[in-house]
Predict the 3D structure of the following.
Amino acid sequence: MRRARWLKVGAGLLLLLSAVLAIAQQDPLVIFAVVTKIPKDRKQVTAQVSTGGAATEATLIATEPILDNLIWKKLEICHSLKGEAWMAPEGYRLVSVKILDAGMLPMTLQGIAGECLLKKALEFAPLVD
């Protein structure tokens, strides 16, 4: 009787473990993003993100290899990114990241990038005189 109970518990744990491993082995999502806020530590960056649909504000979470990446170290507001990431409850956990020209973004993000760049240019325009 006890042996049968342990077999059921063991089978249940094995099933649960295999489901967790299957989720972890899924391919990361391809995301496009426009950076909107950069905190001092750069571990979590706020951005407008699109995975093929409408753009939403989300957090980009940098993993250790991303934090060491020169692109991430030089990241600024209005930068356009293409990356691969896993969706997590707190945001998108980045696996890889590349800088893009704003014209290479999906249409849903091109307007956001354009507005951001205009605001940034107007902030610096008075300093040019």
Observations:
- The first helix runs from residue 2 to 24.
- The beta strands are 29-37, 44-50, 56-61, 80-88, 91-100.
